[in-house]
Amino acid sequence: MKKTIYHVKEMDCPSEEHMIRMKLSHLSTISDINFDIPQRSVTIVHNEKELEILRLIKELGFTVSVVESYNINDTNGINDKNKLKENILLWKVLFINLFFFILEVLYGFVGNSMGLIADGLDMLADSIVYGLAIYASKGTLKRKKNVTALAGFFQLLLALSGFIEVLRRFTGSEIFPDYSIMITISVLALFGNLLSLYILQRSKSNEVHMKASMIFTSNDIIVNLGVILAGVFVYATNSRYPDLIIGFIVFLLVINGGIKIVKLSR
User: Fold this and answer.
1) pTM to 2 decimals?
2) Spatial contact of 29 and 48, defined as CB atoms under 8 Å apart
3) What value, to the nearest 5°, has the Cα angle with vertex 136 and ends 134 and 138?
4) What is the dihedral sign for C-alpha 155, 161, 165, 168?
5) In the beta sheet, which residues pair with residue 5?
6) How many other CB atoms are there within 10 angstroms of residue 112's CB atom?
7) 151 φ, ψ to 5°?
8) Residue 78's pLDDT is what?
9) What residues pair up with 43 in beta bridges, in sequence order?
10) How confident is the model at residue 129 (pLDDT cuts 50, 70, 90)?
């Protein structure tokens, strides 16, 4: 077995990490890949020639070089156990997100709140990301790309529908959202995201997809607080606009996430 460290000049976000993972996923000789985005480095444990991996990464249009390469003992057993533990944690946060997606969308319709519905779809978007992270170690490259594209287009379809509905409500005379439902359900979702963040942090993983999952969950906490604040403003101003504004912002975020997922499938 060899461990090779590559420097990728353009790698500055999880999108590049996913592109490299998918590009190399057909190589059965790779047993582990670790990414360090701040250092723009990729560490790969493999039996492949390091120059072949270098060539494949370069095909993505990246400027890449070999920093160092050396022989190591076989680490397949340890890596498999680590991946299994990470997948179990990801399954837990996936189910938490799916539960609150259903809860928020359901009560979003009951309480006539676009902010809640948008937040619910944001939870669904994270569920898709977690599901893709779990699926990343399985299946053929073609299947991975097909599933990723399908997930991205599904997310875009839902988000665009919600975005159009928000725009329609800006010009209509809709019933005011129920601020008490907005605040109550968002507080519950906040606790759900805090639990997810706690579960992810317990992994103490240096894998970028785990770190990215923590970032997504941290962003969700900010969105939860935004919906709670919008509910307070609905109550204080007796206006539906705070709910529509937070819905507008969150739907834009979900649309942007869907576009990124579709790009990863190419």
Assistant:
1) 0.64
2) yes
3) 90
4) positive
5) 43, 68
6) 18
7) -65, -40
8) 46
9) 5, 34
10) confident
